[in-house]
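Hi support team,

I've been running sequence recovery on a batch of backbones for a student project. Most finish fine, but this one hangs at about 90% for roughly twenty minutes before it completes. I'm not sure whether the input is malformed or the queue is just slow. I've pasted the C-alpha cells below so you can try to reproduce it. Let me know if you need the job ID as well.

Thanks,
M.K.
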C-alpha cells in the first residue's frame, strides 16, 4: 500500500493530521483558549498558546527563554519547589533560584521586591505544600511589582480544578496578561501518563517559547492533541471534572462490619464441608 500523497479534489482541504508543529495543533489551541477564558478567566488567545509535554517541559521552555533574555535568577516560593528536580531544572537553564517566604496570605511580595530578580515562579491558586491561596491584595501587589520592573510571573496553575474548601479563584494571568505566563497540564485531571500541557505566554514571549519548543522536540504528538481537543469540545472533560470533584469531596465511607481480627484463610487444598451439611435431596427417595 502506497504511503505517498493521495489524489483528491484540488479545492478540498486536507483533513489528515499534519506533521508536528512547535506551537501545537491549531484545533487544540482554539478549544483550549476558549476553555481557559471560560473556566479560568484568563485572557487566552490561540496564537499565544504553546502545547508542551507537561509541566516539566513547559517550565524548562520558560526558564531557557528567560536565560536567553539575559535573566540570571528567578524567585521561588519557600516552602515550595524545594525538590531537587525543580532546582536542577532552574540551575540547568543557567538561572539561580532565590527563595521568597510564604505566609498565610501567600507569597510575601515585600520580600520579593527586596530581592534582585525580575522573574518569579508562583502557585497562586493552591500553594504547595501549605495549601494557601494568594489573597487579592497580594495579587494586585504582585502584578504591580511585575509592571514596575518589567518582570515575568510564571503562574503554576497547580490543582486549580480541585478546590473543596472554597470557591475556585481565577487565573492571575487575567489581571496582567503582558507579564504573566501560565503553566497548565492534564496530568492531575486526567492521568500522569498523558504528557500534555500548555504555556500561555505573554505576547512578547510567545515566539521565543515556540522557538525553544522547536529546538527541544519539534512538537508534541498530534493524535494526543486531537483527542484532548475532542474531549474539551464535547463537554466530557467538564463532566469528568464535576464528577471527580464530587467523588473527592465526599467523606470516606465507613466499613459495613465492625473491625476485628482477620478471618483465617481457608486452605485451598482442603475439601469443603459445605456439601455434607446440606440436606439430602428429596429426589433420591422417590
Amino acid at each position: 500500500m502506497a504511503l505517498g500523497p493521495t489524489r483528491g479534489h484540488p479545492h478540498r482541504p486536507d483533513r489528515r493530521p499534519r506533521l508536528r508543529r512547535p506551537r501545537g495543533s491549531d484545533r487544540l489551541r482554539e478549544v483550549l483558549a476558549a476553555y481557559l477564558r471560560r473556566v479560568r478567566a484568563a485572557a487566552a488567545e490561540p496564537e499565544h498558546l504553546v502545547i508542551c509535554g507537561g509541566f516539566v517541559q513547559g517550565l524548562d521552555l520558560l526558564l531557557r527563554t528567560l536565560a536567553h533574555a539575559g535573566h540570571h535568577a528567578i524567585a521561588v516560593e519557600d516552602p515550595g519547589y524545594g525538590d531537587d528536580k525543580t532546582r536542577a531544572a532552574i540551575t540547568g537553564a543557567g538561572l539561580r533560584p532565590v527563595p521568597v517566604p510564604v505566609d498565610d496570605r501567600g507569597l510575601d511580595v515585600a520580600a520579593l521586591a527586596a530581592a534582585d530578580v525580575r522573574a518569579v515562579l508562583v502557585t497562586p491558586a493552591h500553594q504547595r505544600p501549605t495549601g494557601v491561596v494568594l489573597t487579592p491584595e497580594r495579587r494586585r501587589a504582585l502584578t504591580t511589582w511585575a509592571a514596575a520592573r518589567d518582570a515575568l510571573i510564571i503562574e503554576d496553575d497547580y490543582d486549580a480544578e480541585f478546590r473543596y474548601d472554597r470557591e475556585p479563584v481565577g487565573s492571575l494571568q487575567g489581571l496582567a496578561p503582558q507579564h504573566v505566563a501560565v503553566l497548565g497540564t492534564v496530568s492531575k485531571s486526567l492521568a500522569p501518563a498523558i504528557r500534555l500541557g500548555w504555556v500561555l505566554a505573554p505576547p512578547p514571549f510567545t515566539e521565543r517559547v515556540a522557538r525553544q519548543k522547536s529546538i527541544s522536540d519539534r512538537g508534541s504528538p498530534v493524535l494526543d492533541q486531537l483527542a484532548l481537543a475532542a474531549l474539551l469540545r464535547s463537554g466530557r472533560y467538564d463532566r469528568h471534572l464535576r464528577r471527580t470533584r464530587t467523588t473527592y469531596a465526599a467523606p470516606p465511607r465507613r466499613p459495613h462490619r465492625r473491625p476485628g481480627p482477620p478471618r483465617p484463610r481457608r486452605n485451598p487444598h482442603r475439601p469443603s464441608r459445605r456439601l455434607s451439611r446440606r440436606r439430602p435431596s428429596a429426589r433420591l427417595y422417590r
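--
Follow-up from support: It reproduced on our side and the slowdown came from queue contention, not your input. Strands lie at 49-52, 73-78, 96-103, 106-107, 119-122, 152-156, 180-185, 197-200. No action needed from you.
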